[in-house]
Amino acid sequence: MQPDDIRSEFKNIISQCKTFDDLEGARVHLLGKKSALLNLFRSIQWLQIDEKKKLGRELNLLKNEIEFLLESTRSKLDSEARDKALSEKIDVSLPGVKYELGSIHPISQTAFEILDILDTLGFESVHGPEIEHDFYNFESLNISQNHPAREMQDTFYIAPNIVLRTQTSPVQIRAMLALKNPPFRIACFGKVYRRDQDITHSPMFHQIEVLHVNKNISFSDLKGTVTLIMKRLFSNKVQIRLRSSFFPFTEPSAEVDISCIFCNQSGCRLCGETGWIEILGCGLVHPKVLKRININPETYTGFAIGIGVERIAMLRFQIPDIRLFFENDLRFLSQF
Ligand code: PHE
Asked: Which class for 72: exposed (0-12), middle (13-18), buried (19 or more C-beta within 10 A)?
């Protein structure tokens, strides 16, 4: 092929390009390693000096013309593509993709409501780890080495001294150590774990821990606080009853019952015909617990409350089986 042959051919080839791929094919054909033009460039070396100059000039000119035409054709294709995209019509009347709105889980709803009540009473919300050291979960809470709660049958052990916390009470200790000086007024909502499973027990459930330590905190502060929480949560008419109980980290300790909200104390299946429903555990912080973390129990006293969130939610929403909370069945969850 001679330069004239290439010249008569390249415009035709490029003018037939309809796409960027066509154009790339034309570029490779006309300027690539196997192109006639490059062959001619290679042949220059065998020519006389005058001929070299002449052909060199001609070939460079030709190469420039080809490159120019490739480039201008490329920008023509570019603007055609842009015009096409801009002229595309979007049907704005077409229905969009609908996002289903979820709702807040009944356990979270219940917990947030209790935390809100506590917030108005000045309790600050704090958190602690779910994987807990034996020291915080048991020892610092005055739960002795041979206490049945520490048995493998009741507690999930991760390692000999590491457990899935069985209660939110370890956060009492963590919060007091972190805040250092009383007064302490904290609330902790979180998951706890026990090896237990039936229609009212789940191996994972939720508690809210309430702790108030200050000078002159007495049992009547505890009773007043519990009464207020229950009245705000259930109704102003609800009655409170305290029964003496035992927890290693409180002394005295009490179980709190509320008057049955279903039968107005006339006796029903839900209150076991007693008119009362057991609702939470509480007590005055044991002096040993305070002393152990260097808080003088002669100067400071306090109360602690442990609220089972599932229990409250089951009562408020009249849910018969705790497992419904964690099956994530939308037919159940969408009712809240
Ligand atoms: N931590 C106790 C439990 O899980 C409940 C509790 C908390 C009792 C605070 C008294 C004071 O059973």
From this structure: exposed
Residue 5 to residue 69: CA distance in whole angstroms: 17
Sheet containing strand 157-159, edge to edge, reads 131-133, 162-164, 157-159
- Report d(CA 265, CA 262) in Å as an integer: 8
For residues 296 and 163, what is the distance between their CA atoms, to the nearest angstrom? 29
Cβ contact 232:117 at 8 Å: yes
Q: Whose CA is nearest to atom 11 of ligand 1?
A: 282
In short, whether 306's Cβ falls inside 6 Å of ligand 1 is: yes
Residues in contact with 73: Cβ distance below 8 Å, sequence separation at least 6, in sequence order = 14, 15, 17, 23
- Between 11 and 150, the more confident residue is 11
Number of Cβ within a 10 Å radius of residue 260? 22
Nearest CA to ligand 1 atom 4: 167
Per-residue confidence (pLDDT) for residue 302, from 0 to 100 = 98
Pocket test for ligand 1, best of 172, 192, 247, 310 (most atoms within 8 A of CB): 247
Does any ligand 1 atom lie closer than 6 A to the CB of residue 304? yes
In ligand 1, the atom with minimum distance to the C-alpha of 306 is 7
Separation between Cα atoms, residue 307 and residue 303, nearest integer Å: 13
| Averaged pLDDT, 203-215 | 97
Does 126 have pLDDT greater than 90? yes
CA-closest residue to ligand 1 atom 7: 306
Average pLDDT, the chain: 93
Q: What is the largest CA-CA distance in the chain?
A: 122
Ligand 1 centre to CA of 273 (Å) is 26
How many other C-beta atoms are found inside a 10 Å radius of the C-beta of residue 131?
13
d(CA 176, CA 293): 8
Work out the number of other CB atoms within 10 angstroms of the CB of residue 221: 16
Rounded to two decimals, what is the model's pTM?
0.72
Percent of the chain's residues with pLDDT above 90:
82
